[in-house]
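ok so for the tutorial part 2 we go from a plain amino acid sequence to predicted structure tokens. step 1 is just haveing the sequence, like this:
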Amino acid sequence: MSFTSWYNRTLNQIWGFVEDRTSMRKWALRPQPQFTFKPSYWTGGFVVTAFLYQVVSGMLLLLYYQPSTNTTLTACGQPVGTQSIAPAAWCSTYYIIHSVPMGQLLLSSHLYGAYAMIFLMFVHFFRGYYLGVYKAPREFSWMVGTLLLVMTLGMGFTGYLLPYTQISYNATNVGLVLALRLPTVGPLLGPFILADGTSQGLLSRMFDAHVLLLPLALGALLYAHIALFESHGIAPQATSDPLQRRRFTEKEDKQGVPFMPHIFWYITKWGLLYVGLLLGIAALWPWNLPTYVGNLAAAGVVTEPDWYFLWLFKLVDFAGVTPVLAIGITNVLLLYVLFLPFLDRTKRTHPRDRPLFIWLATSLVGFFILMTVWGGETPGQQIALMSIVYTIGPIFAVNAVVTGLFYWRYRRSYLRRLQARESSFTGSYSPPTPLSIDPHRAVAEAKSGE
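step 2 — the prediction. this is what the tokens look like for a chain of 450 residues:
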């Protein structure tokens, strides 16, 4: 007997004993098909792993962080014996980096973990978009996932201010200006965000949102997302068949791999790999704390948000784009994503059968990457109208041509295969099926007339 067989049999025996004594099978997550044991099927699990690390590392940072703009008696990097004029929020961050054992590793991994979580959320989102997992009966699961993405970006925005550096303070003010200039909604948001209008009020609100309000919202939405996932199960593989079942039966579930202990250890393996890579990156490239708010040496600091908001930051630099228009464009994109299940009504899930929506997704990916790089290279630089057209226009045009060519080529080859199948059913040859005729219906009619 091989070691793998012995190990799996022993593990099943041990876990069978545990399940018998704890009834764990009643509350463990549902089994999964064997074909899902690929990293691409567990992007959502990676996001949950990143979220859990952020919770743990954030709780450790809370032991030392002080959300205050008042000055402290701590030297904060200045000569010994001199009183610091730096805010307590910045000084406590400085203390974490330079005085807490492994504090810089903890703070750097928390920062890079936030970046990783946002990046993984985008990967998870676009994977679901391309494979059409938002289609019935998973519409509400997609909408909850979209809200999770928004909450995650909100966590990034509120956490950016907490070290209380000059660059984060400037970028937060730019973001607040964009939000407060919204018609009707902006004045209503003002008192909740700005508090009493002081810097301390703003920092306190950002701190409360980052460590309490948004994590509670994230936890509730994550619970709803997992509950909906348990209700419908994992989405079947993408297909061109409009008659494909979108749920696995109870019998098929029983034939799947049980969550405990197999899936649990599978996720744990990837989770430990994620934490190891994160700590390695944080150790090799530790984050350096920029100067504090109010430092006269920071007069020339360029206002720049974190990378996930650079595209919006650059959009405001475009000629003719006001803050209200930029926020309006963002809201339109959000509404499009939120209600995508009700816009894409075709029953086919394969990307090749949804050229319009695939073109939109690919164009948006190119647009976000270009705007992010553009915003980082030329922060605050105004862009003329013709430069906008010549730079962004080719993204949408080239994607339209490429998507159209692939779709045309696919339709030709696919219809030839269907025609061959139809001929095998009828025993006779007929001209190719026109594009306006549903190829699956043609095959079904051929079968019924057999």
